[in-house]
Specification:
- The structure is a single chain.
- The radius of gyration is 12 Å and the shape is globular.
- The chain starts with a strand and ends with a helix.
- It is α/β, with parallel strands linked by helices.
- Strand 1 (2-8), helix 1 (12-23) and strand 2 form a beta-alpha-beta unit.
- Helix content is 47%, strand content 24%.
- It contains 3 helices and 3 strands, in the order βαβαβα.
- A 3-stranded parallel sheet has the order 1-2-3, with helices on both faces.
- Helix 1 (12-23) runs parallel beside helix 2.
């Protein structure tokens, strides 16, 4: 299994673009984790609607890039141990 971690804050357009690219990949053993750090541009709503298999972790806008990465990696480590 390959995990893809995407940190995000108010960059819905870019997130949708990258998710579209990942969706057409031939390798299908991937799990996508999006850390949405308090976006106000409807990133979470759009991703849920268009890509229901994406796991979305939420922040309150104070994670910044490093905090979003740490939150995502902690989630991935926990999930990978359960597999």
């Amino acid at each position: 299994m390959v995990y893809v971690l995407i940190p995000s804050h108010n960059n819905r357009k870019e997130v949708i673009e990258i998710l579209n690219c990942l969706e057409i990949q031939t390798y299908k053993e991937i799990k996508i984790i999006l850390v949405d750090d308090g976006s106000t541009d409807n990133t979470e709503i759009e991703v849920k609607k268009m890509f229901p298999k994406v796991t979305i972790l939420k922040g309150k806008g104070n994670l910044w890039w490093t905090g979003a990465i740490v939150k995502g990696i902690n989630h991935i480590i926990k999930e990978a141990k359960e597999e």
